[in-house]
Structures
1.
Amino acid sequence: MTGTTLDDYTDRYARRVRGMTASEIRALFAVASRPEVVSLAGGAPYIAALPLDAVGEMLGRLGAEHGATTLQYGIGQGTLELRERICEVMALSGIDASCGASPDDVVVTVGGQQALDLVARLFLDPGDVVLAEGPTYVGALGVFQAAQAQVAHVPMDDQGLIPEALEVAIADLARAGRRVKFLYTIPTYQNPAGVTLSEERRERVLDICERAGLLVVEDDPYGQLGFETEAPRPLRARRREGVFYLSTFSKTFAPGLRVGWILAPHAVRDKLVIASEAQILCPSAYAQAAVTTYLATMPWREQLKTYREVYRERRDAMLDALDDMMPAGTTWTRPGGGLFVWATLPDGLDAKAMMPRAIAARVAYVPGTGFYADGSGSGNIRLNFSFPSPERIREGVRRLAGVMEQDIAMRRVFGQVDRPGVRRGRPGADTPGPDLA
Ligand code: PMP
């Protein structure tokens, strides 16, 4: 050991660690969680909508009466009982035996997040490219970055991912000699954009990927949280092969249990289990028993309805408040389900630069840049409506509108608004940006 000391870690980091930085959301948590701040920044479900006493009693019994199994190790793939229940849950969305879904091909994971990590471990080499919606889930960006893969964004409009843009992206990357492994997509009630891939586009996206030899990783935590109509059937309900279906109980039951799953093509299920065992040995037996017992003994379909009703009311509160108070030039999506609205700020406003003023005005949001791998998104913000009450949502939007009005006024005074040729805060202006309004 010459020249370095043992508290000098930087030079020792693996290459994949070098790009690791705290996400925008993590960095914001400390301030956004102060009680005086209306946080529209998080993504937490409204757990108080659960029958917490009954769930608590159930959890107590799992330890007291079934501790010999629930506190023991289990098998890497997850218990058969839970995998069977998961198939019942998926059948509600149209993924059933008729399209080859079977408990045998389900791998239980530690939330949807481990499911993403497993798929990345299985398929991504350093330098590989993942195609993903722009914007996309911040936690997926972290996983792909850790795998030293690059993300190429494909723009969306209010019908979701644009198939023509997907074709262009695939052709461009092929021309550049890049290896694209899969399309990562959240087709239903997308996080963060709140848009849903239309029925007609689902087939086209699948056809395009099939023709290009791309796998599809379908991330679907929100599909059962639709407010008005049923969501279009998932991609996995339309294709048996080539589609990995990922979901979680985090939004439909409780994220604290950390239970998710992958429905994998049969040929790769074993590899997923081996990769998962290397990572975690096995998912928590206690958490799996909790979810299994919840699904077997409690009215989970009713609970889904309750979540939908609570979130629909909050979505409406947010859309009404935005309609009433947002400054001219602001646009936003009108989600049919899920937890988020994605807003585009008037030209010239920078979501990140505005953040300290928003916090000072006691409101928090997530700047759009967190949801892109390429620095785009500074003209966007993500707003969460699942956790705050309708009154807090309205108050939060009121405070946010005030901050935006102030920023607009300041920029007018200093002559920085609408300078021709200058698209402030949009570093990704050369690539097609999302037009989600
Ligand atoms: N995928 C998406 C699109 C998500 O929004 C989330 C959670 N916000 C996850 C995966 C991870 O969920 P989990 O809590 O089950 O790990």
2.
Amino acid sequence: MKVVAKVGVIGGSGFYEFPDLYAPAELDIETPYQSSVKATVGKINGVSVAFIPRHGPGHRIPPHLINYRANIWALKSLGVDFVFALNAVGGIAAEMGPGALVIPDQIIDYTFGRAHTYADILSDALNHVDFTDPFSQKLRSILMNAAHGLSLKVITPAVYGCTQGPRLETAAEVRRCRRDGCDLLGMTAMPEAVLARELDMQYASLCTVVNWAAGLTGEPITLEEIYQTLSLVRPHLCNLIVASIKSLA
Ligand code: HPA
């Protein structure tokens, strides 16, 4: 297979373009999963990188309607081995307030009804992938080292609770997730992380905390605060992803 890209970057809320890519080309990748996927492919320090905004250009696709299988399949078809996923999340743990950058090491999956596996046909092959550690330790270390090099504070480890959305949680749901051991809540790490595992790709998530989870402040959560935090943090995210990709060169 001709390798078109070695690294995949999946942009989340507020991250719809990746202007750091040198000589970018737009691709429209056909997939077996009912939709084609638009990706931008370019280089960072000689490493070829494919960028996909998971919510589509300008955030048209809500978390439960994202075609996760098509996105991950598209990256695999380009030859991608390493995936950095960007996720906006709500913070539960005391040190994970708005603006914090977090590299989770664990997931609890609260989603339902999403196409969550490639094992959707009868097959003699066993399809029980090991998911003890849902994120790649190698990519997590690369992110942590890159953050250190940039004097950027990142928090790790952390448990990411993946909720169904698109609504935010109730206060009682957040209390329950805290009891379960979640440090933060987002809507997009699953099934993305497990699909990458099924296709044998290394995958890590870099989370931006954009609000305190529901019920923790007594104030309603507004999209305004979420987007304000995202735009403040975006330059740091870009620097961190670029530095991480350089260290994969
Ligand atoms: N909960 C779930 N997902 C989110 C949140 C949240 O509070 N903020 C951003 N994504």
